[in-house]
């Protein structure tokens, strides 16, 4: 019997050669440039963080803010969101300076008080005299204050043709306010006070007083 000759392929498992990772060492100049960029990035973040912290601290304490007094009317059963809207959005609608600028910080302060007292804040309805430089804590306390000043009504007749200084002296003589304070606030334009709005606009156009 004749044999059959054939060719077969034998498979042998061989380990792949490990991949050689070559580390390319950066040149000295490149290392310095990378280090400078990294240091600059860290300094930039630090400076921006510091500026933000300083701004929030000055805003919270009312430092270097306006000392103008605004009459804010709080409705009954007002919530913290209502109070914030009155002190920000409503102020801007009336072309007045917002009393607070960071509403989230005021909301956090109110939430902390509610958690500490374990009861919701009850804002006192009515008019409140607020100033942007009061600081957030003082503003929050004022909005909850039941303190009020007893008012006495005084009738004063302002004759036609009276100069501003004469009107100021008349108010001072009647015990309403100091003459110099009236002139100051009159020139500053206090639109919140009805008695100033009722005075003829002609007084504001007089330059000799």
Notable features of this structure?
209 residues; two-stranded antiparallel ribbon; 8 helices
Can you put this structure into words, describing what you see?
With 209 residues, this protein is mainly alpha-helical. The protein is 45% helix and 5% strand. The chain contains eight helices and two strands, in the order H-E-H-H-H-E-H-H-H-H. A two-stranded antiparallel ribbon has the order 1-2. Helix 6 crosses helix 7. The longest helix has 34 residues, at 28-61.
Which helices and strands occur, and which strands form pairs?
Elements lengths: L27 H34 L8 E5 L5 H8 L1 H5 L9 H15 L8 E5 L5 H8 L20 H10 L5 H10 L5 H5 L11
Antiparallel strand pairs: 1-2
Helix pairs in contact: 6-7
Uncertain residue segments: none
Q: In percent, how helical is the residue content?
A: 40-55%
Q: Specify the overall morphology.
A: flat
- Cα(first) to Cα(last) distance is 142 Å
Count of DSSP-assigned helices: 8
Q: Which structural category do the helix and sheet elements fall into?
A: mainly alpha
Number of strands: 2
In short:
With 209 residues, the protein is mostly helical.
């Amino acid at each position: 019997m004749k044999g059959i000759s054939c060719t077969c392929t034998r498979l042998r498992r061989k380990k792949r050669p490990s991949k050689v990772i070559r580390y390319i060492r950066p040149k000295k100049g490149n290392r310095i440039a990378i280090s400078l960029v990294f240091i600059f990035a860290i300094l930039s973040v630090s400076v921006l963080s510091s500026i933000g912290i300083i701004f929030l601290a000055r805003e919270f304490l009312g430092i270097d803010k306006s000392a103008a007094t605004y009459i804010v009317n709080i409705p009954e059963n007002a919530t913290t969101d209502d109070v914030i809207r009155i002190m920000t959005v409503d102020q801007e609608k009336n072309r007045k300076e917002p009393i607070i600028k960071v509403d989230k910080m005021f909301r956090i302060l109110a939430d902390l008080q509610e958690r500490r007292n374990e009861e919701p804040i009850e804002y006192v309805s009515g008019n409140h005299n607020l100033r942007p430089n009061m600081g957030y804590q003082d503003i929050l306390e004022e909005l909850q204050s039941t303190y009020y000043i007893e008012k006495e009504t005084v009738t004063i007749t302002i004759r036609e043709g009276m100069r501003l200084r004469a009107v100021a002296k008349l108010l001072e003589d009647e015990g309403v306010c100091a003459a110099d304070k009236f002139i100051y606030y009159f020139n500053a334009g206090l639109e919140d006070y009805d008695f100033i709005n009722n005075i003829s606009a002609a007084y504001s156009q007089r330059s000799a007083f």
